[in-house]
Design goal:
Elements lengths: L3 H20 L2 E6 L5 H13 L2 E4 L3 H10 L13 E5 L4 H12 L4 E7 L2 E3 L1 H8 L4 H34 L1
Antiparallel strand pairs: 1-3, 1-4, 2-3, 4-5
Length: 166
């Protein structure tokens, strides 16, 4: 019979995984075998700067947690995998994608994005979406150019009215 303390510790880890998946907008599973400690530290730092968390769990515990959530990734949970949890949908995927371009050992495998499974093709598409800051700048630029054009038109109209008065 297994030691009750060990069972309790394992259940705590399963509960942690369940909570992380529930509160995250994106969960990305990737292979990291071949990355050095320094590269993993660099990746963790980049993810942390964007409010994402990198965790490595035993596949059996991850499977239990996902089974509890009615998510079947058994085919994907073969070999060592790391998991990134984030409340931001796109930022961690972009970070992993950029990091993978420089470090061939990192390979994204599958994700859970906004509660739906996302295969590697969908993850790669999400990685090309501009960041929220970039999108906000684009929106602001569009709005200010419209307001600028309106101001120019109103000024021209005002000048026309003044000429008609004279």
């Amino acid at each position: 019979m297994a030691n009750p303390k060990v069972i309790e510790q394992k259940q705590a880890i399963v509960n942690e995984i369940i909570e992380n998946v529930k509160k995250s907008s994106s969960v990305v599973f990737f292979e990291y075998h071949g990355l050095t400690v320094g590269e993993m530290t660099e990746l963790r730092r980049k993810l942390k700067e964007n409010n994402a968390e990198l965790k490595i769990y035993k596949n059996t515990l991850t499977r239990r947690a996902l089974d509890n959530l009615k998510i079947n990734l058994n085919d994907e949970l073969i070999g060592p995998k790391a998991i990134v949890f984030s409340e931001d949908t796109v930022a961690p995927i972009k970070i992993l994608s950029e990091f993978a371009k420089k470090h061939q050992a990192l390979q994204m495998k599958i994700g859970i994005v906004d509660g739906e499974l996302a295969d590697i093709n969908k993850l790669n598409k999400l990685a090309t979406i501009p960041s929220i800051d970039t999108l906000l700048v684009m929106l602001a630029r569009g709005m200010t150019s419209s307001l600028n054009n309106l101001a120019i038109c109103l000024d021209l109209y005002r000048k026309k009215l003044e000429e008609e008065k004279n």
